[in-house]
Amino acid sequence: MSLTEQQMERYSRHIILQQVGGAGQEKLLASKVLLVGAGGLGSPAGVYLAAAGVGTIGIVDGDRVDLSNLQRQIIHHTPDVGEDKVVSAKRKIRTINPDTKVITYDRRAVADNIREIIREYDFVIDGTDNFPAKFLINDACYFEKIPFSHAGILQFDGQMITVLPGQTTCYRCIFGAPPPANTVPSCSQAGVLGVLAGVVGSLQATEAIKYLLGIGELLTGTLLTYNALTLEFRKVRLNRNPDCPLCGEAPQITELKDEEQTVCDLKDCKC
Length: 271
Description:
- By secondary structure, the chain is of the alpha/beta class.
- 33% of the residues lie in helices and 17% in strands.
- The chain contains 10 helices and 8 strands.
- The termini are far apart.
- Residues 264-271 have low confidence and may be disordered.
């Protein structure tokens, strides 16, 4: 494909970068990224991927916009309250960049549908807010060999890692399985600083763009943590786990299954 005159102007600040150039921008326009979740993390990721000129963005989310979302989910605005998140997000992305095609999946990602969805994409961004979904994304991407960016946020802390399935440390290599019930609260229970989602979600978009362009060093084999109160980033090197139940030497997980939700019920929470 060749860039139009309007695209040359729109993406001019990319094109003058030696590591991107016209060829790199054409590569972005031909790429497909899937957002699983159009919330706190998916919002900034989707905005920046659209602005960057990613040609196709898929959005998986079965929720509607709630007033409490607006403190951090910047792709949704006050008039969108009550609307399906995928519809709201698609409208904003198309407004930001008409070059971007948006494919919506107004449903939750579950074991029965996720592999069929993700296999159509070059890169996946995990923007979910619960452990079952995160393990499901990790496992589905492993079986389909689709690279992805994991991230999670809570209160003032965020973490992320990029996974090249079968090649680098996966989510299960680090955490194994969801935590026991009543040990970890959700954002709705413990709170989250709104701007934290913007920082971490933007970093996820950065990883996607770097992967698509084949530039820089990806956050593979490394867990990045960030604390908003101290503005401290920390990188922890993590090797692949030979005993990982998914990608280890004797895998125990050979098919997808939906994990049970394990976040705290506040009246029973021991955290």
